[in-house]
Amino acid sequence: MTTLTQSATWKALQAHTSQIPHMRTLFDQNPQRFEQMSVKACGLFLDYSKNRINSDTLELLFSLANEANLSEKISAMFKGDVINNTEQRSVLHTALRSKADQVIIAEGANIVPEVQQTLAKMAEFVESVQSGQWKGYTGKAITDVVSIGIGGSFLGPKIVSQALRPYWHAGLNCHFVANVDATSICEKLKGLNAETTLFVMSSKSFGTQETLTNTLSAKDWFLAQGATQQDIAKHFVAVTSNVTKATEFGMDANNIFPMWDWVGGRYSLWSAIGLPIALLVGMDNFKALLDGAHQMDEHFVSAPLAQNMPVIMAMLSVLYGNFHGAQSHVILTYDHYLRGLPAYFQQLDMESNGKSVTLNGTDVDYSTGPVIWGGEGTNGQHAYHQLLHQGTALIPADFIMPLQSHNPLGEHHDQLASNCFGQTQALMQGRTFEEALAELSNSKLDEQQKALIAKHKVMSGNKPSNTLLMDKLTPTTLGALIALYEHRTFVQGAIWQINSFDQWGVELGKQLGNDVLERIGADQDATELDSSSNALINLYRQGKL
Ligand SMILES: O=P(O)(O)OC[C@H]1O[C@](O)(CO)[C@@H](O)[C@@H]1O
After folding, report:
1. Closest Cα partner for 482 from 275, 329, 338, 321?
2. Which residues are the active-site ones (predicted)?
3. Rg (CA), the chain
4. Which range among 273-277, 388-392, 428-432, 513-517 shows the weakest confidence by mean pLDDT?
5. How far does the centroid of ligand 1 lie from the alpha carbon of residue 260, in Å?
6. Is 510 part of the annotated catalytic residue set?
7. Active-site residue, selected from the candidate residues 195, 210, 351, 376
8. Residue 507 known to be catalytic
9. Catalytic pick among 190, 382, 444, 544
10. Interatomic CA distance for residues 65 and 492, integer angstroms
11. How many CB atoms lie within 10 A of CB 443?
12. Which pLDDT belongs to residue 2?
């Protein structure tokens, strides 16, 4: 048994949460609830008043954070301590958005100058591609970028580029390939012109099967269009921490942008892995993105726990996961440009906190990371919101919305906002049997039928949600928003005493995948695995059922 579940605060929270009244009552009891339970930081506004909390709950949650030595753990990360203990690595994605004059030490050296040099190299490259100075093998400017990478080397560039669509440089388009399924790359290459296409291959390790295979296929395609081996340097660049492997693979040394072991894949969009973003939105906007994240870093390290946005959001998630039995958390973006964010936060949180042993190897006896999922509003309202309102699972929700649209059109944004706020209200207050019955008062149904229908219309309410607002979706507010969720994930991991920065489960999948690939290519049927795996491999080898 871990000491966490034996602590007095843990037990006090267990007792306390069962006595918290319905949120309707909490709002009736305290007219100041919104003012007291909202916080503004780095261009973001968080209303967390629609949660199953009162001041005692918050006090207990912050005690839990203090007992976990949260402040010490935060400073350990920021100063480069080796907190990823299973891979013996510092965790310094925050250094990627630090100020140029900061000194941050990893493995005995100040890493800020390298970060700045890489940003300068990116700036030079971005400028030359955007201006048309960078020419393809027939002397034409680049019109299309194909970004090849997977996991953090895909989701960050793709989702941030999508979110910053209004900032794209005219004349450049970007296509993202991640999956090893040939359909993905074949569909993306259709219609592209090799003379004007630039491939950015992103792989921290330079050893990921999908990315290597897709890059080789991209090279084959490029050469098949009439280009020669010497032309490759004008059309292929790589981002990696394994420069040796990239050069051995055939990448021109001048076309390699470095990154480092102290940056986790799912935290890497701030590094040169963000090159496709910078190519699309320009270096000034990329730096504004970094600046937004830096602002959130400063808030995270300096704000007291009770006003610290990432800490508040993390502790609320701990509350629901550990004391109310919630097993999933939904992210609902009320902005079409942010439609990819749930997938980004899904990798960030689930790859980080999907763990079941503590840092020192003890089995946890409490829930850790929830299932993260979601989508864009209002689409979800006509689909899975039904379960949020009336299902048996408790699913805390984050609603995210900019106050101003990049595309103001008639009443669209008013309607979008009213749906967003209306949903949080409905989740919180629900509908009682009496209210449902009253709504049926003018119907022609008899009393028995009315009672039956009313029963089906009851919504218990008391469903928690956060509402996150920003003036407008800009590179800066987006940077702050993503860093907010990074730190939220970190705080949860700190409470649960797990390593949020390794991913051994994912690594096993890679290993077994390679093993199966060998068996698929072997001369004889597979016989050494379990009967199901053998049979599936052999069916595949036959190519038909
Ligand atoms: O950048 P790489 O080394 O190709 O890895 C890609 C992704 O693979 C993972 O290790 C999981 O598959 C992620 O953490 C990482 O972002």
Report:
1. 338
2. 351 (proton donor), 382, 510
3. 26
4. 513-517
5. 13
6. yes
7. 351
8. no
9. 382
10. 9
11. 10
12. 78
Q: From atom 2 of ligand 1, which residue's Cα is the shortest distance away?
A: 203
> What local confidence, expressed as pLDDT, does residue 1 receive?
75
- Cα separation, 144 vs 146, in Å, equals 7
Q: How far apart are CA 343 and CA 338, in angstroms?
A: 10
Mind listing the pLDDT tens digit for each residue in 425-445?
999 999 999 999 999 999 999
Structure tokens belonging to residue 136? 């393809």
**For the CA of 268, the nearest atom of ligand 1:** 16
Report d(CA 91, CA 110) in Å as an integer: 14
Is this complex scored with an ipTM above 0.85? yes
- pLDDT, average across residues 399-403: 98
**Cα 153 to Cα 306, 394, 408, 542, distances in angstroms:** 34, 33, 33, 35
Report cis status (omega within 30 of 0) of the bond before 244. Answer: no
Structure tokens belonging to residue 7: 């602590």
Confidence bin at 514 (pLDDT 50/70/90)? confident
- Tokens matching residue 231: 């032309």
The stretch 347-357 carries a mean pLDDT of 98
CA of 265 to the centre of ligand 1 (A): 5
Q: If you search the block for the tokens 């100058």, which residue do you land on?
A: 113
Q: How far apart are CA 127 and CA 175, in angstroms?
A: 19
> What local confidence, expressed as pLDDT, does residue 107 receive?
86
CA gap 402, 8 in Å, rounded: 41
CA of 207 to the centre of ligand 1 (A): 9
Q: Does 175 participate in catalysis according to the annotation?
A: no
Answer whether the bond into residue 25 is a cis peptide, omega within 30°.
Answer: no
Nearest residue (by CA) to ligand 1, atom 9, is 151
The first and second tokens of residue 504, run together, are 């051994």
351 C-alpha to ligand 1 centroid (Å): 10
266 CA: nearest ligand 1 atom: 16
> What is the β-pairing status of strands 371-376 and 397-402?
unpaired
Residues sharing a CB contact under 8 Å with residue 217, sequence separation 6 or more, in sequence order: 182, 185
pLDDT digits (tens, 9 = 90+) for 233-265: 999 999 999 999 899 888 889 999 999 999 999
Structure-block tokens of residue 308:
């610290």
- Which residues make beta-bridge pairs with 110? 105
DSSP code of residue 142: P
Residues 6+ apart with CB under 8 A from 355: 364, 368, 369, 493, 496, 498, 499, 500
Instruction: Report the pocket of ligand 1 as residue ranges, CB < 6 Å.
Output: 150-153, 203-205, 208, 211, 265-266, 351, 503, 506
Over residues 159-213, the pLDDT tens digits come to 999 999 999 999 999 999 999 999 999 999 999 999 999 999 999 999 899 999 9
Q: How far apart are CA 513 and CA 208, in angstroms?
A: 11
Angle of CA points 154, 332, 265, to nearest 5°: 25
Beta strands in 34-182 (DSSP E): 38-41, 44-47, 105-106, 109-110, 144-148, 173-177
Distances, alpha carbon 124 to alpha carbons 134, 165, 204, in Å: 10, 22, 22
Q: What predicted TM-score, i.e. pTM, was given to this entire model?
A: 0.97
